[in-house]
Each structure stands twice: as structure tokens, then as C-alpha cells.
Write a structure and sequence with these properties.
Length: about 375
């Protein structure tokens, strides 16, 4: 069977530094005998072979933002590939509607995978997005052959527009991304971090919704044995560096530029606790990665975190963005070392047994089979 997966959010992503979910899924599906073609946004049109039976077709696009825009030659490319099944993502993308209309015109079954679980927080677009989802999104949900949701929050969101059977399709982790080359860098030695330090870690874009400032302020309230590694770039990096300086904790915060995937194991290996103070995460690949490397996670209660973390069992959840609360929570975590060590010793196996793509792809295969079953009605 040939499946074509279309990235309907028109954004350019670097596969070297981003553990792209669609690629991990495609590789797992290929192990089950499927041929998978991926359509991604690219600055120039080209084809890239990932592995046996998996190819990426990069198409140029014209866009206002990732939601509003068009692929150049999408329909022609889909005609050329002629899939048995088409997979699209998110009801709020114009290209989801366009790709779905192609599938209808060619009488080819289509499924949708939903990750977002709320409307945009940008006031100028919020009403427009609601109207788009109400009209075009509802049309897709009513007529498409099958719908999978990454989290329970995504399911609840879709039910506001149309109530039907939504199947769980959680994201998995592609562990092969971490073994592209040997990497044994001693991070503590490189940055002069003391051996007895408690290493807190943040990996991701330094932007407003991730609230890195909360982590910095919380660190300033902790003993000097706590240090923080911040891995990534972003438009708020300068202001965060200024905040660090104003709090006089320059010797306890280490900024590391955005890294390719194969460099991350050395960084995770020195971390004692991963921090994610985000107010919105569709899933949270860094949570999966941290758990895979036996690093317990402290996260706000986003849609992804609540799906991946069982509080005080596979990690820690916090319902606050107050730096005092974060500092207090971190103190409590390391004061209860029995629970901490239990979580640290079990999270890797939890991910390996439940959340690698070779496991989670079976949910997608169930969705595909139901969608292709002419006698099956998902509504």
C-alpha cells in the first residue's frame, strides 16, 4: 500500500535539528511493508530518499503564514504519486482542505491527524481561524474517511466542531535519530560545570510561550548547586541573557546553540531534570526524548504533557507559571529522592515499551484500515 503524508502546515523545518514526527512514522510504516511518500515545504523542489520505501518530496510554497498559503504543484504531485491513502494534518490549515478536495476528486480515501487543541492566541487571527474551522474544518470532519488525534485535548477540541468517532493516534519517538554518529562529548568538562551540580535542562525555541524567564527566575531562588542549561535559539534569547545578568547568575546559566539531533545524547546524559514551562504544546517531543534518556520532566499541564506524564509516576506536572512555585517544586523533587530515583529508573523503559514509533504506528495502521474498509462507518 502506498500512503502519502502531506505536511499541511507550511513551515520550513531542519530535519537535522528537529525530530520530525512524520519521518518517524513513515520509517515505522515502511517496516510494516508500506510505501510512504512525504510532502514537505521546501525552499526548492527536490526529492530526498530517507530509507527503503520512504521518500520526501519538497515543494515550494507561497504563504502568508503556516496556515494560509498554497503548495506549488501539490495536485500535480499527488496525481503523479497516486496514493492508495492520503494523510493530512490539522483542520485549521488551508492546505488540509485543498489536499482533501484533491482526494475527493480522485475518489481516494483520506485521513486527518489532529494535534492542536485550541485556537491561535493571536487576537487578530483568532476569529478568522474559528470561522475557517467552523466552515472548512467541519466539512472535512464530516466527510473524511477517518480522524486520529494525538491527545485527548485534541479530541475534545474537534468535538466542538463535529462529533464523530476520533481514534487515538499518539506520536512516537524515532530513537534512530540519536545514533547517526558517535558523540561522547563531556558537557560538564566543556562548560566547567561542577561534578556535584544539579543540572536543570531546557531544550527548545527561546520564545514567549515557553516562558524561559520563569525558569531563570526560579533558578535564582534555588541554592547555588543548581545550574541551568538552555539549548536553542529564539527571538527572546537576548532578553533572557539580560535577565540572567540582572539576577547575577551568569555563572549558573549556560547557553548552548541549537544542536543537531546526534549531539543531544551528550547533553541529556548530564541532566538531572528537564524543565518545560510552556503554556501550549501540541505534544512535546522533548518530553519523550528526556524520558528516553532517563531524565525526569517537570512540565506545565499542556495537552502533550498530560498525555505523556503521569504526575509523580512518570514525571512531574505543575499548574503554575509562578517562579516561586517552580522553585518550591524543584526543591521538593530533590528532597524526595526515593520518588525521584524511582521515576528516573523507569521512564526509559516506559518510553521504549509504549512510545517508540514501532509501537504507536499500530494506532495509525488501525486508522488506515478502518478508513479503507468500505463497510466501516466512523461517524
Amino acid at each position: 500500500m502506498h500512503i502519502v503524508i502531506v505536511q499541511t502546515a507550511l513551515s520550513y523545518l531542519d530535519n537535522r535539528t528537529y525530530n520530525r514526527q512524520e519521518i518517524g512514522l513513515a520509517k515505522a510504516l515502511s517496516n510494516h511493508g508500506y510505501k510512504v511518500s512525504l510532502i514537505f515545504a521546501g525552499k526548492k523542489e527536490r526529492i530526498e530518499n530517507v530509507c527503503n520505501n520512504v521518500d520526501i518530496y519538497y515543494l515550494r510554497c507561497y504563504k502568508f503564514n503556516q496556515q494560509i498559503g498554497v503548495y506549488r504543484n501539490l495536485w500535480q504531485t499527488l496525481d503523479l504519486l497516486h496514493p492508495d491513502l492520503l494523510q493530512i494534518h490539522e483542520i485549521g490549515m488551508f492546505m488540509s482542505y485543498s489536499a482533501f478536495k484533491w482526494s475527493q476528486s480522485r475518489n481516494i480515501k483520506c485521513v486527518l491527524i489532529q494535534g492542536p487543541y485550541e485556537l491561535t492566541r493571536k487576537n487578530i487571527f483568532r476569529q478568522f481561524e474559528f470561522l475557517f474551522d467552523k466552515v472548512f474544518g467541519t466539512y472535512i470532519l464530516k466527510h473524511i474517511a477517518g480522524v486520529g488525534c494525538k491527545t485527548r485535548a485534541a479530541t475534545s477540541f474537534l468535538k466542538k466542531f463535529y462529533n464523530r468517532n476520533y481514534l487515538p493516534t499518539p506520536v512516537g519517538l524515532d530513537e534512530s535519530r540519536f545514533f547517526m554518529k558517535e558523540n561522547n562529548v563531556d558537557i560538564k568538562a566543556r562548560y566547567g560545570i561542577k561534578a556535584n551540580s544539579k543540572v536543570l535542562l531546557y531544550i527548545g525555541v527561546i520564545e514567549g510561550r515557553r516562558h524561559v524567564d520563569v525558569l531563570i527566575k526560579a533558578l535564582s531562588k534555588l541554592p547555588n548547586t543548581f545550574v541551568l542549561l538552555i539549548v536553542g535559539n529564539g527571538n527572546e534569547k537576548r532578553s533572557i541573557m539580560d535577565l540572567v545578568k540582572s539576577l547575577h547568575i551568569e555563572d549558573r546559566v549556560y547557553f548552548i546553540p541549537k544542536q543537531p539531533q546526534e549531539n543531544l545524547p551528550s547533553i541529556y546524559s548530564v541532566a538531572d531534570l528537564f524543565l518545560l514551562a510552556s503554556d501550549y504544546e501540541i505534544y512535546g517531543m522533548v518530553i519523550l526524548e528526556s524520558m528516553y534518556y532517563n531524565v525526569p520532566v517537570l512540565s506545565t499541564m499542556t495537552g502533550g504533557a498530560k498525555s505523556l506524564i503521569k504526575d509523580n509516576e512518570t514525571g512531574y506536572l505543575i499548574g503554575s507559571l509562578n517562579s516561586d512555585d517552580w522553585a518550591s517544586k524543584m526543591k521538593n523533587i530533590f528532597e524526595n529522592m526515593e520518588l525521584y530515583c524511582k521515576i528516573k529508573s523507569t521512564v526509559h523503559d516506559y518510553v521504549v515499551n509504549n512510545l517508540l514509533w514501532n509501537k504507536t504506528c499500530m494506532n495509525y495502521i488501525t486508522l488506515y484500515n478502518k478508513a479503507l474498509d468500505e463497510d466501516n462507518k466512523l461517524d
